[in-house]
Design a protein that fits this description.
alpha+beta; five-stranded antiparallel beta sheet
Length: 1024
C-alpha cells in the first residue's frame, strides 16, 4: 500500500487553497474529476498521479478545468457510459459536460493562470430543478437516468438521454445529502437529515420516454429509519454506497447506541444486522470497491468459488480517519488516522478496485494505491455480472425475484401449481416462513475498538422467526396424510383436505364466501362484510337465462371455512351465482366501548314473491340478520372510510362522537316481535322506533336515516328520528342501499335502481334497470354461455349520479342527460394503456362510494376520486385475479406484429379521452383539468395536429362559432363537443384553452395551430 499526495493535486489560487468537496474516477480509469470551493471542476490524469514521483517534465497533469458554475462544486460524477460528466453546485444548478474529441489542446480563459487544457470538455446541458444547494448526484448503472438531491429536500430524476426532468420526488422531510444506485439497475437510495434512507424502485426509461411516460415509474419501496434514530445532524454529507454484488447498502452517519457507525443494510428485507464501529466522529462518506475480491489467489482460468468472494468498503468522516474493511474480517484491514487536517468529504475507487482517492475540506487530494493481496485478489467483472443476475440485472421488463425469500416463495408457488395439475394438493402454496438460523456475528467488547458488530434487535427478530418456523414445522407434522397397508400388501394414502388440515385456511378461490379478515391496507377496496346467500332454484334449463342469479325456492346451504373444499352441487351453484357484497359497516367495527362487533348471524332467507322467477334480471337478496348496523362519525362519514393521503382514518380520534344506527330483528321466524330501530351516541339512545317487518339493509348520514324492509318498503327518518315521508314502496326486495348527502340509492332484486333527493322529495329520473350492464358480460363462446357477472359495488356521487362496478372489473355510471349507462373503466385500459396506475398511488377517493357525505362538502371535491377508485377496482378484479391474462397475451403478440407499431400510443390516448369523458359525466372538476393537461401533452408530443386543432376549437367556445364555416362544421358533429356555453365542469373554457396553448407552445410543428389562439386569448401580450 502506498500513499500519494502530489503538491500540484489541489484546488488552489495563488496562496489560497480551497476546500475540495467531491471526486470521481471515470469508467476507463484514465481521469479523476474533482470539485471544490473555487467553483471549478478539474479533470486530472490518473497516470500522472500514480507516477508523480517519476513524472517527466511537461507531462500533462491537469487535463481540463471548467469554471461554468457560480458556486462551490459539491458533487462530480462520470456517467457509466463514459460520455458525460455531471456536476452539482450550491448555485442550485446541475451541469452536464461532454468531451469534444475533435478539438485539440487549447488555452484556458484569458487572464487565468490555469495550465493549458489537454482535453476540451464543453457544457452540454444546464439542468435547473432545485431551490437550494445540490448536495449529491448519481447515474444509474446503464446511464439511463441521472438523479440529483439537495438541501431543498427534493430528489429530482432526469433522463440520461434527453436530460428532461422526468419526476420530482418529495419523499423526504429534511435536507437530502446522499445518493447511491443499485448496480442491478432496479433501485436507488437517498439519505437525508430526516434520519431515514428512502429506497426507490424504478424501471430504466427508453431514450424517447417523457415525463408523462414515467409518471408512475418511480415508487417508494421502503423507508429505513432504525439505524439513524439518534444520528447527528452536523454532517455536511451522508454519502452512502451500494455493494458491487447488489446485496448491501452501506449507510453513513448511523449510530449503534451512543457510538457512530456505518450501517450495512440488507437488500430485500431492508434491515440492518451489521454495523461497522470504530470511528470517533460521524462518518460522512463510505464507498464500496467496484470489484469483488477473493481471499485466495485467482486461478489462471478465472473460476472462483463463491464462498471465497468478499467485498471491500472504505469509510471516512469528521474524525479525519480512513478505514478499509472487507466482509471476511470483523476488524478493518486498514486504519489511517489523521489522513487530513479537516473532514474527509468524498471517496472514489478506480474501476479496477486497486486505487482509492480521498478529498478533504483542507484542500488536499490523496491517492492510496493497494498492491495485489493487500485487500484480497481482484476478481474479473464476469463475477459481478453473475452475482447481479439473480437480481435481474441486464433484463428489462422481467420481474425477477429481489431476494432469497422472494425466490423461495416463487419456488413454492410453482410447486403448488404442479401439484394442483396432478390432483395432489398436500400443502399450502403460500406456507413460506424463513427458517434461517440466527446470525452468529461477533460481539463488540468495551472500549473504542474497531469491529463489525451485529444489531441486537435484528438478532432478536431472527430468533423469533426461527421459533415461528419451528412451530410451523410441528404443525405440518400434525397434518401428515394417513397411510394404511391393505391385505395384499399395497399401500394406501388417505388424502387430507387442505381446508380441514389443522387450523390453516385454504387460499383457493372461493366464489361463495370472502375472507373475514380482508386486508384493509392501501389499494384494497374489497367489501368488508359479505353476506352468505341461499342456494337458488335451479329449475331453468342450462344455457337459459344468463343473468339469472337467484331463485324463488330455497334450500339452506351451510358453508363454512372448514368444508369449502368439498361443496358438491353447491360448488356448481356458487360458480353460476356470484355472491354480492352488501356493505353496511366493517366486519370488525370498533364500538365506542372498545369491543369488536362480529358479523351477525342470519335468521332465515328473505321471503321472495314467486313472480320473481320470471323476472329478466334477478339479484341475490341478503338474508334476514339478527342485527343490522352502520356507524358514522360526527361529520356523517362512515368510520370505515379510507384515509386521505396518509391522514389518520376516521375513528382514531373522537371515538366518543360516533353515532350507531342499529336494526334488531326478531330472532325466530315464529316470533311476532317487531323490529326495533335505535340510534345511539355515547352509549345514550337518541331515538327509537319499531317496524312490523324485518329489516334487510340500513344506511344513513348526518342528514337522514333509511331502513329497507323485507317487504320492499323503505322507511326514511330525519336525523332526529322524525319520519320524512311515507314509506317508499319498491317492486322487490332491496339488495343495495347507499346514501350520500341528501341522495338515496336503492337497487332491488329485479335489477331496478331508484334514486331520490330527500331534500326536495323528487327523483332525477325514473327507475333504471341494471340489465344492460349484466347483459354485456354474458356473451357466448362457441356452444357454451360464459359466467354471468354480478354487481360488487353501487353508490352515488354528490350530484346523484349512480356509479356501479362489476365482478369483471368494469365500472359504470348512469348519464341523466343521455338516459343510458356509460362504461367508465374496463380491463382493456388496464392491460393496454401506459397511463394505467396499477399500484393504486393515484389520488384517492374523498369518501367511500357507499358512504355518505357532509352538507358542507363541495360537489367537485366529492366527485373527485371516483374514476381512480373505479380503476383501482378494475386492477383488483382483473390484474390481481388473473382475469387479464388473455388480453395481455393478445396485446403482447400485437405489439410485435407489423402494422401495430403505434398500438400502445393510440390505446393510451384513447384511455385519457375516456377519462375526460367520465369526468364530465361525474362532474369531477379537478380530475377533468388533470386529464385534459395530460391529454394535450401526449397528443402534442405525438404531433397529432387534427386532435390538437379540434380541442382548441371546442374550448374556444363562442369565438369559434362566430365564423359561419366553424358553425357549419360544428353542426356536422364536431368530434364530441363539450357542451354549449362558456363553461365545462365548472371551468371557463377559455381559461382552460390558455393552459392548453401554453402546454402546446413548445412543439414547433403545432405552432401554426396554437399561435392564432394565443393571440386571440391575449397569451402573447406583454406590457409596453
Amino acid at each position: 500500500m502506498k500513499f500519494i499526495k502530489p503538491f500540484w493535486l489541489t484546488h488552489s489560487e495563488e496562496k489560497r487553497q480551497f476546500e475540495v468537496y467531491s471526486c470521481h474516477v471515470s469508467p476507463d480509469g484514465a481521469r479523476l474529476a474533482t470539485g471544490g470551493r473555487d467553483c471549478i471542476v478539474r479533470i486530472w490524469s490518473t497516470a500522472a498521479i500514480y507516477n508523480s514521483d517519476k513524472l517527466l517534465p511537461g507531462a500533462p497533469k491537469q487535463l481540463c478545468s471548467i469554471s461554468t458554475h457560480s458556486g462551490a462544486v459539491l458533487a462530480v460524477r462520470f456517467s457509466g457510459c463514459n460520455r458525460y460528466l455531471a456536476s452539482g453546485s450550491d448555485d442550485k444548478i446541475v451541469l452536464i459536460y461532454e468531451r469534444d474529441t475533435a478539438a485539440g489542446p487549447n488555452r484556458p480563459v484569458f487572464g487565468s493562470k490555469e495550465a493549458p487544457h489537454v482535453e476540451t470538455w464543453r457544457t452540454s446541458r444546464r439542468l435547473a430543478g432545485h431551490d437550494n444547494d445540490v448536495q449529491d448526484i448519481g447515474w444509474s448503472a446503464d446511464s439511463s437516468i441521472l438523479v440529483s438531491v439537495g438541501l431543498d429536500s427534493k430528489v429530482v430524476v432526469w433522463s440520461g438521454h434527453t436530460f428532461e426532468k422526468l419526476k420530482t420526488l418529495n419523499f423526504h422531510q429534511s435536507l437530502v445529502k446522499g445518493l447511491t444506485f443499485d448496480p442491478a439497475n432496479k433501485y436507488f437510495a437517498t439519505a437525508s437529515d430526516d434520519r431515514s434512507i428512502k429506497v426507490v424502485r424504478f424501471n430504466p426509461p427508453l431514450p424517447n420516454s417523457t415525463a408523462q411516460d414515467m409518471a408512475s415509474t418511480f415508487q417508494l419501496e421502503n423507508s429505513i429509519t432504525s439505524p439513524f434514530v439518534t444520528s447527528p445532524l452536523t454532517t455536511y454529507f451522508r454519502r452512502c454506497s451500494w455493494s458491487p454484488d447488489g446485496a448491501h447498502i452501506a449507510a453513513a452517519n448511523a449510530t449503534n447506541g451512543p457510538v457512530s457507525s456505518v450501517a450495512i443494510i440488507n437488500r430485500g428485507t431492508w434491515d440492518s444486522e451489521i454495523n461497522l464501529i470504530g470511528h470517533e466522529g460521524p462518518v460522512e462518506v463510505c464507498a464500496f470497491a467496484p470489484r469483488m475480491f477473493s481471499k485466495d489467489p485467482v486461478p489462471p482460468n478465472g473460476t472462483v468459488d463463491s464462498s471465497v468472494l468478499v467485498t471491500v468498503i472504505a469509510c471516512a468522516g469528521q474524525d479525519k480517519a480512513l478505514s478499509v474493511w472487507n466482509t471476511s474480517h470483523p476488524r478493518p484491514l486498514v486504519i489511517t488516522q489523521d489522513l487530513a487536517t479537516k473532514t474527509i468529504s468524498d471517496l472514489a475507487w478506480s474501476p479496477d478496485g486497486k486505487n482509492l482517492f480521498a478529498t478533504s475540506l483542507d484542500g488536499s487530494i490523496i491517492a492510496i494505491m493497494f498492491e495485489d493481496g493487500d485487500l484480497g485478489h481482484v476478481v474479473g467483472l464476469e463475477e459481478n455480472d453473475r452475482l447481479l443476475q439473480k437480481f435481474g440485472a441486464g433484463r428489462r421488463g422481467v420481474g425477477l425475484a429481489e431476494g432469497v425469500d422472494a425466490t423461495r416463495l416463487e419456488e413454492m408457488a410453482k410447486e403448488g401449481e404442479r401439484k394442483e395439475l396432478d390432483g395432489k394438493m398436500a400443502e399450502l402454496m403460500m406456507d413460506g416462513a424463513g427458517n434461517g438460523a440466527a446470525p452468529t456475528g461477533l460481539t463488540a467488547p468495551s472500549g473504542a475498538q474497531w469491529q463489525m458488530v451485529p444489531d441486537q434487535n435484528a438478532a432478536k427478530g431472527k430468533e423469533e422467526a426461527l421459533e415461528n418456523s419451528r412451530a410451523i414445522i410441528v404443525q405440518k407434522k400434525l397434518q401428515q396424510q394417513k397411510v394404511t397397508i391393505t391385505r395384499d400388501g399395497k399401500k394406501r394414502v388417505a388424502p387430507v383436505l387442505i381446508s380441514t388440515g389443522g387450523n390453516q385456511r385454504s387460499n383457493l378461490p372461493n366464489a361463495q364466501l370472502l375472507a373475514a379478515n380482508t386486508n384493509t391496507g392501501a389499494g384494497s377496496h374489497a367489501p368488508s362484510v359479505t353476506l352468505d346467500l341461499s342456494k337458488p332454484f335451479d329449475g331453468l334449463p342450462r344455457g337459459g337465462m344468463a343473468s339469472l342469479l337467484i331463485g324463488n325456492k330455497r334450500k339452506h346451504v351451510a358453508v363454512t371455512e372448514d368444508d369449502t373444499g368439498d361443496l358438491g352441487e353447491d360448488a356448481h351453484v356458487a360458480k353460476r351465482a356470484q355472491t354480492l357484497a352488501i356493505t353496511n359497516g366493517s366486519d370488525a367495527q370498533q364500538h365506542e366501548e372498545g369491543t369488536i362487533l362480529e358479523t351477525p348471524e342470519f335468521i332465515r332467507p328473505a321471503v321472495i314473491n314467486p313472480s320473481m322467477t320470471v323476472s329478466n334480471v334477478r339479484l341475490a337478496v341478503p338474508k334476514v340478520r339478527i342485527v343490522v348496523q352502520t356507524i358514522i362519525d360526527s361529520s356523517g362519514q362512515p368510520v370505515t372510510a379510507k384515509p386521505e393521503n396518509g391522514a389518520p382514518p376516521n375513528g382514531t380520534d373522537g371515538t366518543e362522537e360516533h353515532i350507531i344506527f342499529e336494526a334488531r330483528n326478531s330472532r325466530a321466524a315464529t316470533d311476532r316481535e317487531p323490529t326495533r330501530l335505535t340510534v345511539t351516541k355515547k352509549s345514550q339512545t337518541m331515538w327509537t322506533d319499531y317496524l312490523p317487518k324485518a329489516v334487510l339493509l340500513i344506511t344513513g348520514n348526518n342528514n337522514f336515516w333509511c331502513a329497507a324492509c323485507e317487504d320492499g318498503s323503505l322507511v326514511v327518518y330525519s336525523f332526529a328520528g322524525r319520519r320524512l315521508t311515507n314509506p317508499l314502496i319498491v317492486e322487490a326486495q332491496p339488495v343495495f342501499l347507499s346514501s350520500r348527502g341528501w341522495w338515496l340509492l336503492c337497487v332491488t332484486a329485479n335489477g331496478m335502481a331508484h334514486v331520490w333527493n330527500l331534500r326536495t322529495l323528487k327523483s332525477p329520473h325514473p327507475p333504471i334497470s341494471v340489465a344492460p350492464m349484466l347483459d354485456i358480460a354474458n356473451t357466448y363462446q362457441g356452444e357454451k354461455a360464459t359466467r354471468g357477472e354480478s354487481i360488487t359495488e353501487a353508490g352515488l356521487n354528490s350530484e346523484g349520479t349512480i356509479v356501479m362496478s362489476l365482478t369483471n372489473g368494469e365500472g359504470f355510471a348512469y348519464s341523466k342527460d343521455l338516459h343510458c349507462w356509460q362504461r367508465l373503466t374496463e380491463a382493456w385500459w388496464a392491460v393496454g394503456s401506459q397511463y394505467w396506475d396499477s399500484t393504486g398511488s393515484a389520488t384517492r377517493v374523498q369518501a367511500d362510494t357507499t358512504g355518505s357525505s357532509g352538507v358542507a362538502t363541495a360537489a367537485a371535491q366529492v366527485s373527485a376520486g371516483v374514476i381512480p377508485h373505479l380503476e383501482r377496482r378494475t386492477t383488483q378484479e382483473v390484474l390481481m385475479h388473473g382475469r387479464g391474462r388473455f388480453l395481455q397475451r393478445i396485446l403482447k403478440n400485437l405489439i410485435n406484429r407489423e402494422g401495430f407499431e403505434g398500438f400502445e400510443t393510440q390505446v393510451s390516448i384513447s384511455h385519457i379521452e375516456n377519462r375526460m369523458a367520465g369526468a364530465v359525466v361525474l362532474g369531477a372538476k379537478e380530475e377533468f383539468k388533470q386529464y385534459l393537461m395530460m391529454y394535450v401533452r401526449r397528443i402534442g408530443a405525438e404531433g397529432l395536429k387534427g386532435k390538437v386543432e379540434e380541442v382548441c376549437k371546442e374550448l374556444m367556445g363562442d369565438f369559434a362559432e362566430d365564423d359561419e364555416d366553424a358553425r357549419d362544421s360544428d353542426a356536422g358533429g364536431g368530434g364530441g363537443r363539450w357542451g354549449i356555453g362558456d363553461e365545462i365542469v365548472g371551468w371557463n373554457k377559455r381559461e382552460l384553452l390558455k393552459s392548453v396553448v401554453l402546454v402546446l407552445g413548445k412543439y414547433r410543428e403545432l405552432q401554426r395551430i396554437t399561435v392564432p389562439y394565443a393571440k386571440v386569448l391575449g397569451v402573447m401580450e406583454t406590457d409596453e
